[in-house]
Amino acid sequence: MANTPLAAPIRLLLLDVDGTLIGEDLNISPRVQQAVEAAHQQGVQIALCTGRPEIGTRRYIDALHLPGFHIFDSGATIADPIAGITLYQKGITQAVANEMLNYARQHNVYIEVYSGSNYFVAYESEHTLIHTRLQQQPPTVTDLADMIARLPVVKMEAVVIGEEEAARAQAMLDHFSNDLDYGWATAPGVTARFCNILAKGLSKGDAVKRLIEHTGIPVAQVMAIGDGPNDEPLLQAVGVRVAMGNATPTLKQMATWITTSVDEDGVAVAIDRFILSDGH
Fold first, then answer.
1. Are strands 111-115 and 118-121 parallel, antiparallel or unpaired?
2. pLDDT(224) > 50
3. Bridge-partner residues for 89, per DSSP?
4. Mean pLDDT value of segment 224-243
5. Where are the alpha helices (DSSP H) in the chain?
6. Is the pLDDT of residue 255 over 90?
7. pTM above 0.85?
């Protein structure tokens, strides 16, 4: 990409979390923190856009002092956790959630169910331990059918280790393709993969469009940074598309620009270039 100024300054910046904002140590580096704070002080609205639920994201929002709306649950929720306001949320119907739970049991697919500020599992396993470490929040072990009967389901999530488990999970997703949408995600240094399972029509990109409409900011002045498969709709929805150096090949192909990896403070590099240096 040529080193020419942007047509208009960036006014809204959307940041994926795992593999983008944070690396394997699960912490925001000092350089990235300084760049995000500098962009915010310059008047840029900054929103995290993640497959994580609010409970797994709040520590980063607080660390960066980011008021306003953020996108959680891979697009199923748009909320301002500091103000306690939900702009949008759409969950999975009880009937479909029960059907997927039954399918997962029959085909040995590890699945989690998310509702409100909690997430639930039927049993603890290696998958549970991996996700607990990432989210820094343990699940509630319970009868999932009973939980679905009592509480609204925001999303469900499959956690897979190895290709055989991934194939079983993908077969489940294909089976419910008329009722649900999904997005695969990874985390640095983790062998497991994660699939956010959502109500039909939802994605990070769908949520970004809703947030852009709410803010009234032109798409050309919206920038997003991501690294994984579920960030493809995110980048498609904005004017300036930045892929991390550790991003998937597909994401890099669709990007306006490719920054450095998460271990090389790629978010800070992109902010310096497109926001703090006015695109030069």
1. antiparallel
2. yes
3. 77
4. 97
5. 30-41, 58-64, 94-106, 126-135, 144-150, 163-175, 204-215, 232-236, 249-254, 266-271
6. yes
7. yes
